[in-house]
Protein 1
Amino acid sequence: MTIAEPAQDGDWRLFRGDGEPRDTPFPAAPPWRRFDRREPDATRPYLIDAEAADVVNAALHLRRPLLVTGQPGTGKSSLAHAVAHELGLGRVLQWPVNSRSTLQDALYQYDAVGRLREAGLRRDTDGTQPGIGAYLRLGPLGSALAPRTRRPDRPRVLLIDELDKGDVDLPNDLLTVFEEGEFAIPELVRLGDDDTPVHVQTDDPDETAPVTKGRVRCAEFPVVVITSNGERDFPAAFLRRCVRLDLPDPDERRLRQIVTAHLGADALDGMDDLLREFLGRRAAGELATDQLLNAVFLRKGGVQLDAGALLDAVLHRLGGAV
């Protein structure tokens, strides 16, 4: 067993493994691991070449979903936040897809049990019935299609993250919604032809959206960014309705720009060995850019390990054995 070293001034170690409690001050977290902001930090530049930016612009003009593929760490998810920031489109609505995700979940949820319970409580008190709108919540896709109460002429930005992890039928399920730009909420359709809108909850905190005659229809088709790690192919009908963008692994010049953008102009001072080690180990699909950022951040924070040992700590092959 290795005995923990005694504390020394300037030592980067927080945990020593010697069982002794200490009032140890914590260093600042990496910029990408800070959670004291309401929204992700979109002020840092998103680095993309002119050809890729033109593909994004084509999707914006055509009002088509943008299907972004590439290895983990190439900036697929960050692209949605960059578009929202540059165009002033507000908060990004996010739908992280997994094997249990359904189209229904992304459109809306209805808490029938909660409404029934509330109706029973009111029947025993004042005899009123609870409004249905309080028990309906639009999901991220439903909220993206709902007209905005402020600036209704401006679209929302929706990030559908890792669609390839979803059920094989999910892309086809999305086609009708993408083509029609609307969907029905049967629980509201059954209320009849009353033109009085029902205000339902949305994916935005403390905001509601009016729904008339049970149909949600967009005024402006949302900016939809769909990411995929390429784990499986999508149906041809789905691909035809998307504008496709493949983000390659960044080369050395782009890696230097990314590190500088996240950690400052002097971030790479004395880091040439780390960068060389990273590029030497990287092969398609094995390492991600954020792992290099982690290694540079630790070195800047005083971690006293050589390049090889430092990279061994944070650079695990994607999908490989732990």
Protein 2
Amino acid sequence: MSTTKKIVREWLSGNREGGIAFLKQLVQVPSTQGNEAKVQQIVAEKLFRLGLNVDIWELDGEQLKKHPYFFSSRETFEGSPNVVGVLKGSGGGRSIVLNGHVDVVPEGDVRQWNHDPYSGEVIDGKMFGRGVTDMKGGNVSLLLAIEALQSLNIKLKGDVIFHSVVEEESGGAGTLAAILRGYTADAAIIPEPTNLKIFPKQQGSKWFRLNVKGRAAHGGTRYHGVSAIEKSIVVLNQIEKLEKIRNERIDDPLYSQIPIPIPINIGKIEGGDWPSSVADVVKLEGRIGIAPNERIEDAQNELEKWVERLADIDPWFKESPVELEWFGARWLPGAIELDHPLMDALSKNYEDVCDKKPIVEASPWGTDGGLLTQVGSTPSIVFGPGVTNLAHFPNEYIHLDSIFQAAEIIALTLIDWCGDATDDAEEESE
């Protein structure tokens, strides 16, 4: 074991209780959309204590609305600040963004939780709570990595830029704002919940709405009408066929363990207004997955053409074509080369810390990595300690050991990527 690895591991072990207590403090703040100010204050205070240059600002909605990749369901961002902390390097090294979001999805039906969703309860080496795995645990790994280097007086050549952003869960406005403010770098790590797998590729997605039309009639003579509910079944079957075709094209081995690499999901259906009437309109809302190497515009065009083909399946759709709308949230796809130097550094340090080779896969969901890669020219890797299949679930939890493993791997990767300036500083002092 190298000296650096040994002292980093010992520091993390000695500061374990403090790290757990800090995570619990974050989890106990219900930082749902519009309620992020308190948790961001806690993060900012931590960054100030670490001696970083700290920038706190509320997003400029008017500026963001001008950007083609902006989306938010909100008109104002008052009370939802971004926080960025910069650890300046000595110069001559590569810079890195460490990007984490503090917004969490609502807890849902609390009756499905075994503990209060914001308790931060610790049982058998796991902490429970909304947002603990997605992704406050990952954020704590980043901060522990920075704090370890600071406490051990390990100096870096390149800058480390820590993003604590809002709005990831609803489209990435926080990260977009950080990019437009100039907080980009040579590469990035995003500690979303990957079970410590390395995700060099992330799918994108975009929301859509399909308005399926019928013809109203009395339910007693429904044969005089055309049921939009029945026609929506034809539409759903057509969407399912498109999903199959799009996924048959995916031959990337990183998707080999993912049953449906780029799903098309219908998540909301509304239709009809009276039990004794034939439904004349059904609204279907969903999201289309976008492959890492696919343009978001190309995915849109394919769905649009596929919907137009409904007229070849059922003459009704010639008379009353389905209306397709693009609305709401979108996440850009992203990818980093498998032989990128940051992939090499992260993989090497994973193997050193965990004594096994990392599992490298593609992300099953979108992240802010697409924005960083495509808009910020900051190639991004998703790698974090959270439990992938528990994001947004009741009884969300994280394995506490994984937080400290991730912190150790990331700390060592920062040294390799940014460059170790410790020896240079010691020589100058002599």
Protein 3
Amino acid sequence: MKKFILILFASFICTLLYSQNDSQQNFVIGKIHTIESKILDANREIIIYLPESYNYNDYVRYPVMYLLDGRKFFHSFTGAIAQMSSDASPQIPEMIVVGISSQDRVKDSSPTNSLIGYTGQEEKGLEVSGGANNFIEFIEKELIPYINENYRPNGHRIFTGYSFTGLPVLHALFSKPELFNSFLAIDFSAWWDEEVSLKNLHTFYTSYNSVYKDIFISTIDRVNNVVYPEKENKTWKFIQMFDQNHPENIDFSYKKYGYKLENHHSVPLISFIDGIKYLFRGYMINYDEMYNSPNKIKIRFEHLSDRLGWKIVPREDLMNFFGNQFMYSHVDRDKALFYYKYNTENYPLSNYAWYCLGKAYEKMGEKDKAIIAYKKSLDLLPENKELRKRIEELENE
């Protein structure tokens, strides 16, 4: 117990010192970039969020979320992602977030041209509608290549939108399903153009032949009122039809929030949290696996990788954390070795993963194995003079 307290205290001191040294610097959540779009004939603003570990390695690739209404939701959604992908029980993997701002939300989001607004009346401001195809083409041919060239995506892409910007999320699913792996639509405007999304659903159901996808759609209970009279919740109607008729190789989940708890304007964050947890269901490691049967962790992530179609593994620092616990606190070296070895399998280009494995072998008195692991660490970080010296000392013993 004393050793465990010392480890936590040392970690706290390290964090405290880092915070003090960094106190004069700005806390950066994301960076704004401008892309010159030939397809849209305009400059487009994007905001990039990078996960905490991004700048501490050059070998990890990350899933990417493309988030519409980028400025509106960037702080809250990336904050949720940062929290849910951190600590000792992460629920989702770390990811890159690309917030996309629209110069004309109506034009970019609407898949068809229509003058009929939410109330059923013609609105002159809707004359520009019908630009979603061009907007999705911009994402496909200009934005995604920009992200691929300048960052480290792993090929898994999530498309997220709310209300009116939920329309292009589902339109992309219907028209270019190969473009994204997962789709998250928050109380989207299913009423648009006489429920055109519902009309497109039947064609999609009968013609879809692409690979596995995950879809999450949320809505709220509607309350009829004199300002916005609504006889039925058309988003809920779409959800019910989608649930009954979606292709077999698409996993679909939904949630309807009660009107006494949430409304259209309060629901985005809670929907996002529920949705992203669904998309990465099975990611969070339970306590039984952590402490009693860590070999089940490997099985869990193999199953998750098979479902998602890409190799998804636990965070490197988390596996080191549990390895250290079992090596120095709980003293179960078989479990400690599992975590250290698992990290070298998942992160073979990490000098620190190999170093931790070598340190464990050295502590266990297995000098030859320690030297092998240390040398692999040194190959990845040749300037580590202290490690080179330690290898020489072990070889001369």
Protein 4
Amino acid sequence: MAEQTLPATGREWHLAARPNGWPVPEDFALVEAPVQAPGAGQIVVRNEFLSVDPYMRGRMNDVKSYVPPFRLGAVMDGGAVGRVVASEAEGFAVGDAVLHGLGWREYATLDAAKSVKVDASLPLQSYLGVLGMTGLTAYAGLLEVGGFKPGDAVFVSGAAGAVGSMVGQIAKLRGASLVVGSAGSDEKVRRLTEDFGFDAAFDYKNGPVAEQLAKVAPEGIDIYFDNVGGEHLEAAIGALKLKGRAVLCGAIAQYNDTNPPIGPRNLALAIGKRLRLEGMLVGDHYGLQPQFVAEVGEWLREGKLVVEDTVVDGFENTADAFLGMLHGANTGKMLVRLNG
């Protein structure tokens, strides 16, 4: 198998303390750790891009969930893409580009079976965004969970984020009658309509969400794609038409609350309207991957999708990038590009 001299150590990020409310820089520690040589069937990857995502906030709490919590004093993980620098695995050579789940570190030693080789002719960062988990979440959530049909009116919260901006564009390309979104600044609102093709958008900080939604979607909505929760979900329940659908993808407005969140006060409307509110995890929809890559890849080649990532340079800035993402500092996907 191919061999390459590996550095003795590499940097990685550890969870130093469990956050109480909003995470702070002191909750993270940048640590030097040995780089392990690959065993049989393993590869070593020098990461080039790391993903920081809202779901990681939940993993910082010591509670049972659909994925185990991060361990205190241990390296965290997440989506990453990079190049193989050492291999003891059949079919993987030095220089191959691979996608895997051991981010938050410069070098990852892992079983080759837990990685996926990707086409390096496309930008590697796209496999963490539009062609990765982010894109599949938007695609599967809208089409499979939401049961989207041409002519549907769609409302997306957190619409300038990685998933939200994709949901709106996919809805338009699939024939939505109306696509509206909410975001947290006037600039993001402008970008939604001028760059991402939304029919209308509003800044949720400028007034009650229900009132602003009624102005841009006076006849109601068929699908709500929820990335925020809280007031947004309550407003959407009020605006959904008969047999409307809500895709519950995220609730970033509540991730850092120290008190139990107040649920939608109008949930009883779901009875009379016969609404369907369904939570989703992207891992349940990997069967859509071939269809997703074929359709979205074609849109990319044809220039029909606007893809924007917010890229923070420097591995040492990974924690800051994560904190910035939680505070809405990104448009599109938040990524970290490793230097060197």
